Amino acid sequence: MKAIPFCALLLSSLLTSGLYAQEQNSSLQQAYSKHFMIGTALSAGQIQGKEPGTLELVKQQFNAVTAENVMKWEIIEPVEGQFNFAAADAMIAYAEANNIKVIGHVLLWHEQTPDWVFLDDKGQTASKELVLSRLKNHINAVMGRYKGRIHGWDAVNEALNEDGTLRQSKWYKALGEDYIATVFELAHQADPKAQLYYNDFNLFKPEKRGGVLKLVAALKAKNVPIYGIGEQGHYSLDYPKLQDVEDSIVAFKNTGLKVVITELDISALPFPEPEKIGADISLNMKLKQEFNPYADGLPKAVSDQLTQKYLHLFELFLRHSDAVERVTLWGVNDNQTWRNNWPMKGRTDYPLLFDRKNQPKEVVQQLIQLAQSADKTKK
Ligand code: XIL
To answer: What mean pLDDT is reported for the chain?
Structure first.
């Protein structure tokens, strides 16, 4: 009998077992390609290739990238008129070379914005005209440089208080309540093809969600070019309730806008002051070991809970994939995640899909299978 080469045997057994099909779809971005984009955020070090294996992993698993920090005002324009584009340029070059969409983060936010923006040359509060001209220059310079190359921008970040009212930020004080519409309009002029999002945290909370709905209604009444709502998604094992997430997605979908999950991570640690849950980056609580229970490793029971929470959330996103266009994780791996240092510096957290050595957690394969079974029911 003629010997059948080993590789042919392997292939045929893979084909008959169905494993081959799975291999073909063995990355998150491929598995979810019929449903929504799968993104991640990249830190400055990761962009520079300082973390072994990360850029290789990202191009396999993700098809969208957001700069975790390097496109924020304090980094990209630290001094008036002096732009620091090097890191953003590098991220965009990497993304374009690998067919990955680029998400801009962020045009206007009250955090990570230098003080000079709001001061005149005497160090006094700058006039409305001066702040507005700086905002215009900033948007035109940054969006102009990358015109046509950025899929979507988080145009305005975190403009609402927890009760849904407008935050009395420096932007609000300088420009008045129309400033949100102004940003969207300036951004649209600078790069008409870029999708523009309003991005915020805790939108699963009914009062804050109500604030977004009011804002969207006002913007739409004035024909302001807003494309979608970004739900950040800084969650934990204890919150939010799935029903609240679903209610927010449905409410946003009903406005006719798209929904993007922009900064998903699920902390495995207890939140030290539960009334402050959210993503207010100014929180800086003193390290207490009672809030750092898994410094030596995550117990299996807790990691199973994390798996379940990810699966339930993705199942929800899949059910609403007519509106949900992208799900971006806020980081690649547990080594680099900001949750190790927020809201308390120096903890050991486990909020992402890849572990400290960039190895996929068990949940990755399960998320892939979840998308594959959704494909089957879709047919
Ligand atoms: C965070 C980054 O992950 C940290 O590295 C940085 O020190 C602070 O900002 N909401 C946002 C993100 O929109 O830009 C924040 O990112 C997390 C909360």
So the answer is: 94
